[in-house]
Structures are given as structure tokens and as C-alpha cells.
Amino acid sequence: MNQGFVFRKDGFTGAEQELLVNETLFHNANGYFGVRGNFEERYPSDCPTVRGQYVNGFYNFSDMKQPEKHYGFPEQKQTMVNTFDTQTMVLTLEGEQVDLFQGTVLEFSRILDMKKGTTVRRFVWESPKGRQAEICITRMASFQLLPLFTIEYQITPLNFSGTAVMESVHSGDVSNYFNPKDSRVAGEKIIHLRVADLESTEEGFSLIRSETLRSGLDIASVVVHKVYAETGELGCPNGYVRERRIGDKDIVETLTIPVEERKAVTIVKYTVTCDSIRYENVKEAARKWMITSVDKPLNYWYQCQADYLEKFWEKAKIEITGDEELNLSLHYNLYQLLQSVGKDEYCNIGAKGLSGEGYEGHYFWDTEMYIVPFFSLTQPEVARNLLSYRHHILDRARANARVMGYPKGALYPWRTINGDECSGYYPSGSAQYHINGDIAYAVVQYYLITGDWNFIVSKGAEIVMETARMWYDLGNFYQGTFQLHDLTGPDEYSCVVNNNYYTNLTAQHNMAWAAQFYHMLKEQGQLAALEEKIGIEEAEVEGFEEAAEKMLLLYDEKLDINPQDDSFLSKKEWDFNQEKKTNGPIMQWNHLYRLYRYQVCKQADTVLAHMIFEDAQKLSTMKNSFDYYEKRTTHDSSLSRCIFGIVASKLGMKEKAYEYFDFSSKLDILDSQHNTKDGIHTANMGGTYMGIVYGFLGLRVKKRGFFFMPSIPEQWNSYQLRLQLKGSLIEVTVTKDSCRFQLLQGEQITIFVYGREYPAVSELTIALEEW
Q1: What pLDDT was estimated at residue 1?
Q2: What is the mean pLDDT of residues 737-743?
Q3: Which of 168, 390, 546, 644 is most buried, by CB atoms within 10 Å?
Q4: How far apart are CA 189 and CA 176, in angstroms?
Q5: Angle of helix 682-690 relative to helix 324-340, nearest 10 degrees?
Q6: Quick count: other Cβ atoms within 10 Å of Cβ 758?
Q7: What percent of the chain shows pLDDT beyond 90?
Q8: Mean pLDDT throughout 370-379?
Q9: Among the listed residues 645, 619, 620, 618, the one whose alpha carbon sits nearest the alpha carbon of residue 630
């Protein structure tokens, strides 16, 4: 029943890297909070760990020291905060502490069940004195009740009877991970929180409230335990003994429980967390939600979790036959996107989701270009929330534009949590103005996929017009063209360049659609409110149209390629045969300025432009550009291979497309980039989905409609997926020789397959074609 939806690892080695990677791979999250998959009993003191619990959008400020102070360079940043430790549970059996690094581990497995929405760690342990016990620990981050996290800890003595003592920790004494040698995480230890309140509530809950030291936010967590024997819930003190110690920064509950050989005892630990971004009184909110949580048995919440996921997979169904390993990795990636994505407009989805502290919890362009497509096509209400977040921070984007010298419009920060810029390195950070075009592109794609005009009227048009204003003010008309200077495209090894092909295309698209939305609003009599709010005028829109029409898009006739920028082709060639000094990106042993001087790309740049704007150039140009840049790309970014795979599929390079897709789909499971310990790669996971839908299925969403160019890798027997297009649920099945479209819900829609129009489709089967 759960084939393809259960991710499992067996065996225990105690290896440091394996422990850190598994903390990420088996984390629990629901878009509101995330808990890393640490061992409840902790590791030895000399064993590295990132023990973390995070709330999406909850942050503190920390200094960002600039060696030379210049106007507009940010001097503070937001950092996602490690909030509490409620996962620590230290078990002692007859005086011997359960510790997998002592004694003998006879059996060990970890399981993520993506239909149940739980993780399970099960092991059989033999103590140094020969006592054996089976321990089974089930965790859940509730999708139904977002503040709720549960740990079900089952103990079964196998060859003894006696006493079990559980020391369960509820602590506010936590800090963030740091590594001064890795630019992707915090570089120094910073204290972000102070414990403000510790108390026992009248219901018997333990409660801790903490305050950030600089951002003015507070957060509360409430914990309570229930104890069960096989016959039912145990009372206290008759069934077991409970003691509570309240310290300066933690509350420790000690449960002393009699145990019998071969009879299970279960401790259920409930945690509820509430933050001040969403709740006015965090203590009262946490207390209220805990009352709701324990009012129902744990099985009720397990059933709610399964029901939620049944509905998710019904809409997001995707199955591959002929490659079970890849089918599992694909489900894993989509499940992690669901765990990571914010469920309200106050947050977004971080580069590492809620699985770790890589990039300090910041939101990037990754959301719009790699993740919004999945949700727009399967869970449009979630995509709307993600884009609503950008509208929520629009005033801060306007303020950022003023700092950067633009009297009108908005410039979104390269990396952020609350809307303020957090990038401390301008060339490969704030200079990536293409984020404006990326966000506008995502708004347009969401509209074309869903037909959600109300979103455009209330939020989307404002985003697109304000970002277009920035482009118009930034650019310059020169010799009959509109040009954009001194910006950085997606390739962070070529910085502060003129007329980056990708950036110019996104800016052109941004301004053209700003004009289109303006005229559409005007025609429908819905423009007045926006005119009054932002002062948009007809003459300004005409300027957008002229700039878009005259945008300079570089083309080299001799090579029949689109140069990445106006200097790229004149640079020296990079020696790709030189010995690698680390497993990481080449910037770890090369000064960035050296990389800027060579034809070397960190990731897809022009190739990405070819993917999303395929009609902007001839097919031969796309093919030649692909060949040219593939030889010069290191794929040091996890955002790269999935894009090359999609374009390879478009060009009919089936084997190459499959190789790129296979690597991308297993990137975290196999720790292919050697940094999964810092968190999952959410953009790559979204890119994996795009690899099937935009790659093998060949979907392109255009103003005219939905265009498909289906194909299938040789390694597969078939694949099947579901898409929500203009409110209709469509199931697509591709086999070795045919492609079938079937309407499951909603109205008939028009689609284009291999360039041919099929109006009002309810069911359609056509033969696969080669191209």
C-alpha cells in the first residue's frame, strides 16, 4: 500500500557525517515549525550535532560587519532562531542509561512514512550488563494543528523487569549552529534568545516563554506527558511517579515507571509552540492549543495526519514505473516541499526548509523559480500564500529601492526573512536584481495556470507594476536599445556585468506584463484602486512597453548562441582539468575575483533563460547555447543540473536529460553535494518535479494556453501525474508509445500537444512522437 512512500535506512555505525545527514533527512516539519531528527538521548559530548527546532519566519537580528562602511550596505541581518529543545528524552533502565554509543545495537532502523506523515526510529539495544530492550520512537509534526509536535516513545524490556526512568527535557537554553569556515551558515556563535518565563500551568503543563534579544519577538512552548501501559493510560502516582524541576532556563520532568518483561510502556510527549508574529499572547495561545491537543487521543491526530496527506497525494499524484528507487526519491522530494512550505503569508520557504540552519533560514529567488511551479500546478492555495508573502513585504521592497537610488518602484532583497536585505556581499548578492523579474514571472505563471484574477487585482498587479518601475528607472536607452548595466545574473561566478541575457529577458517579461495587467484592469473597470494607491499612469506604462520592445538581448551570429553577458565571450577559458582541492565548490579554493575573469559558470544562467523563455530564440540557438555553456558549468549550485536536464529533454537529448534528472532527484538522499547536514535543498527538490513536468512531459505555460511535448526515458515503463489547470484536475499517463490526458474534475480545457491544438479535452490519447 505504501510502496514508493516509505524511506528507510537500516543499520547504525555512529559515523559523524551519517548522524548529521540523518538529522536532516529524518527531520519533522509542517511548514510552521521544524525539528531536526536528533536522537532523543543525545550523542556523546565530542560528537558534532545540529540540535534544532525552528519556526518559519521567526527571527532575530544579528550584526553583519562591513569592513568598509558604504551607504546602503546592510549592517544587520535576520537569522532563523533555534527556539527550544523539547526532543531530548534520556531513558535509564535499571540504572543503565540507554546510549547507542555504549553497549550493543542489535537492530536499528529509521523510517519516514510519507502517507502517515511520521518518522520512526526503532532499535534493539543490549546494555553493557546484558539487559535488552526494544525502543520504538514515532514523531509527528501535525499538518492539521500546526503548533503541535508529538513524540511517542515505546519501551519494551525483552529479558528483564524492573524500573524505567525517563528524564524529559523542556529547555530554552539553546543556540544556533555556526561554522566560521562555511559561508552558507552563521560564522560565529550568537545568543538570540533569553528565557523570560518558566512555569507550571494550572493544567499541569510546563511552559517556557523566550524573547529575542533584538527583533522584539517572543515565543512560547508548552509540554505535557502521558504514560500508557498495554492496558491503557497510567495514572500518577499509582501507575508511575512524576517529578518536575524548574531551573533557570529549563524544566525537566522525571517519570519513574515500573516495567515488565515483554510488556510495552509508552510515553507520549506533546509540544505546542506559538510565536508573536501570529499570536498576540503567545503563552495563552500555546496553552489553548495544548488543551485542544490532549483533549483528543494521539491516534486521532495520526488519523488527521493521514487524511491530510491522502488529499495532498491525490492532487500531487506522481508515479514512475520501472525505477522504484527514483520513484521513492521523487516522493521524498515532494514530501519535503510540503513539510517546508509556509502555510500563511507571514513566511515563505527557506533554501533549507525547516530542516537545518544553512543560509540562516533566508528566503531567496528559489521560491519563485523552482518551488512555486509545483504548488501552482498541484496546490494552488499554497502557491498563492507564497506570492502573498511577497506582497506582505512589498513596502520593505519599496524602501530597499529607495536605498538603492530608485525614486519609484520596488526592489526585492536577494535574501531575507522579514523583507529587509540580508546579503552582505553585493556582487553575488544584492546585485542579483533578477529576483524582481523572477517574482513577477511567478505571479504571471500562477495567474496563467490558475486563472486567479482576484489575486492579480488584490496583490499580483501591484507586485508586477512596482517591480517594472525599478527596471525602467534602472535601464538606459542607448543606440536604439534598452540596456541594463552592472548587475549579476544567476551565475554567481560572473558578477556585476552588463546585459546579462537572463536578467534582460526577465526584465522584458516583467515590464511587458505590467503593461498587460494595466490594460486588463482598465478594460474591466478595476484600475482605480491601484491608480490611487501607487499612482500608476498611462505614460509610465507606455514607457514599460517601449523598454520591453527595445530590450537588448545579446546574440552571437558566428556561434549562434546567446552570450551570457557582453563580456563573457571575451574572457579566458577555465581549466576544468585542474585538480580539485575539496569536494565542495571551486570558490572554496579560488578567490572570487579570479573566477569572475574566466568563462566558468557556477550554474545554469543562459540555459535557464532558454528553459523559461523558449520562444525568445531559435531552437538551433538553444542547442548551441546548451552545448557551449554545458562545457563551462561546474554545477556547484544545487539549482543547476535540474535546469540542464529540462533543456536537454527539450532538445531531444534523452540520455543526458535522464542523467541530470537522476542526479538531482537523489541529491539529498545520497548527500551528493556533501552538505545535506546543513539542511535539504528545497529548490533542487522543486527542480526535480520540474524535471518531469517541464522536462519529460514538456509542459510550457504560455498566454495562449498549456503546451505539451511528452517523452519518456528509456529506463521507465511509464509515468503518471496529476495537474490542476485553470481549476480542472487532469491526469496524464505516458507510456512507451502513447500519452493519455484524462479530465478527473472540473471543466474541459484546451491543450496543445506537439504544437497541435486540442480544444475542450475531457479524454485524449495520442502517440508519442520523436523530435
Answers
A1: 44
A2: 98
A3: 644
A4: 7
A5: 130
A6: 15
A7: 92
A8: 98
A9: 645
* Nearest CA-CA partner of 759 in 768, 769, 747, 746: 747
Q: Which residues pair with 478 in a beta bridge?
A: 481
Output the DSSP codes for 512-544. Answer: HHHHHHHHHHHHTT--HHHHHHH---HHHHHHH
Q: Which helix (H) or strand (E) is 724 found in, with range?
A: strand 718-725
Say whether the peptide bond before residue 237 is cis (omega within 30 degrees of 0): yes
Catalytic, 188? Answer no
For residue 497, what are the β-bridge partners?
Answer: 487
Determine the average pLDDT of the residues in 333-348.
96
The runs of H, that is alpha helices, within 582-640 are: 592-596, 606-612, 619-630
Mean pLDDT value across residues 365-378: 98
- Residue 130 and residue 110: Cα distance in Å, rounded? 24
Is pLDDT at 342 greater than 60 in this prediction? yes
The answer to whether 387 and 445 are in contact (CB under 8 A) is no
What does the alpha-carbon distance between residue 591 and residue 471 come to, in Å, rounded to a whole number?
31
Sorted by sequence, the CB contacts under 8 Å of residue 64 that are 6+ apart come out as 74, 75, 76, 77, 422, 424
**pTM of the full predicted structure?**
0.97
The pLDDT value given to residue 3 = 67
- Nine-digit cell at 739? 500519452
Choosing from 41, 152, 492, 630, the catalytic residue is 492
Burial class (CB in 10 A: 0-12, 13-18, 19+), 324: exposed
Tens of pLDDT, residue by residue over 446-480, are 999 999 999 999 999 999 999 999 999 999 999 99
- Average pLDDT (589-595) is 92
Q: Helix or strand or coil: residue 118?
A: strand
